[in-house]
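Usage example:
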Amino acid sequence: MANILVSNLNLWYGDFQALINVNAHFTQKQITAMIGPSGCGKSTLLRVFNRMNDLIEGVRTTGEVVIDAENIISDKTDLVSLRKKVGMVFQRPNPFPLSIYENIVFGQKVHAEGLTRLKLDEVAENSLKSVLLWDELKDKLNKSALTLSLEQKQRLCIARLIAVKPDILLMDEPCSTLDPQATARIEELMRELKNNYTIIIVTHNMQQAARVSDATGFMLLGELVEFGKTEDIFTRPQDKRTEDYITGRYG
Amino acid sequence: MLRHLDGELKELHKDILKMAVFAQEAIFKSIESLKNRDKHLAQDVIDTDNKIDDLELAIDEKCIDLIARYQPMAGDLRYITTGMKINTELERIADMAADISQKSLGLMEKPLLKPLVDIPKLSQVAQNMVRDAIDAFVKRDAQLARKVVLADSEADRLRNLVQDELVNEYLARDPKTADRAVALILIARYLERICDHTTNIAEDVIYMVEAKVVKHHPEELS
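Running the assembly step on the lines above writes:
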C-alpha cells in the first residue's frame, strides 16, 4: 500500500494549463473521490499518478508526486513498474478480446514471465475471488470476456489489475455505464478493496462520492479548491465554490 | 442559476414561518387568557393545537420528500434538517401553550391566588426569545441566535423566583392554596420549557448558518 503526496503540481497541455499548483495527500486504506465539472482537471490529475498523460503530445508537468519515496513525475521513473503499482479502471470496461482467464493472467505474463500454469491458476482464482466473480465464472474461464455483462466486465477489469498486485487503484467514473444495482455492487466491492489499496475515484455522481469515499477533493478550472473529509465537504464545505457546485448552483 | 429546489425551499420556509406564527400566537393568547381570566381565549389556544399538529406533520412530510427527491447537500441539507428540528420545537412550544391554557381554565374556577407579577415577566422573556429565534432563522443571523441562547438563564431565574415564592409563601403556609399554587408553578415551568425549546431552535440556527454544533458545547458559543 502507498500514500500519494502531491506538491505544487502543475500540468500543461501545450499552452493550456490543466492543473494549477495542486497540493494534496491521498491516504492509503481510504477511498478518495475527486469531483468537479467536466474539464476541471480531475481526470488529468488521476492520469498523472500512472503517467498516462505522457501518451498525449505536448504535455509538460512540474512539481512533485511522491509514491513510496519516489517522485514519479521524474524522467527516471520506470513507467512499466509504476503502472504495475498504480492500476486504472476506466469509464467503459475494456476487457481484452481474450478469454476471461487470459484477461486476468495477462499482466502476470507481462510482469512475471515464466510462471507455472499452477501459479497462474492461483492468481486467476484469487483475483476473481477478490472481485466476487469466482463463483459465477469458475466454470466459464475459457469463455470470451466479451460475453460478460457490463458489470461483470468492470469487475473483471478490476480483477485484472489486482492480479498484478498494485498498491493504488485509480477509477475514472467506473460506474457511469452501470445500472443502479450494478453500481451498488461495485461500490460495495470498492469498500472491501479499500482495506488493501489506496483508491482514488473520479465521479460526476455526487451521491456516489458522498456514499463511497472517506475523503473528497473538489476541482475547478485546474485548481484543487477544497480537499477534506467527505462528511465535511458534503455538509459544511468551507469554500463557496464547493458549496455552489455540490448544491447544483454552479454553471 | 435558479434551481427547482430553490422554489421548494421557499415554500418550506413559508410553512415554517406559519408554524412560528401559530406558536407565537399560542403563547401570547395563553398568557393573556391567564391574566384576564378569559376562558374563551384559553379554549381557543387548546382548540388551535390540532391545526398546529397537522401543520407539523405536513412540514415533516415535505422535508422528507425534499431529501428523497433532491438528495440535498451542504447548505441545503443543513437548511432542511434544521427546518425539521425547528418544526418539532415549535410544535412542542404550542403544546406548552395549550398546557398553560388548560391550567388557566382550572385556575379560573377559583378566586385569584395572588396578583401575577413574575409569570408575565417570564412570559415576556419567552415571547422575546421566540421572536428573536425566528428572526435569526429568517435572517440567517447566527449572532442573534447566540443572544437567544444566552437569554435562557433569565428564564431559569424567573422560574425559580416564581417557584420559591409559591412554595414558601403559599404551599408551606396554607395547604388550601395547593391546587392553585401548583398550577401556577406548572405554568412557570411550561414557560421555562418554552424557553428551552427556543434555545434549541437558536442552536439549530447556528448550525444551519455556520455548520457549527453548539448544542452541548457552550464553549462554541463565543
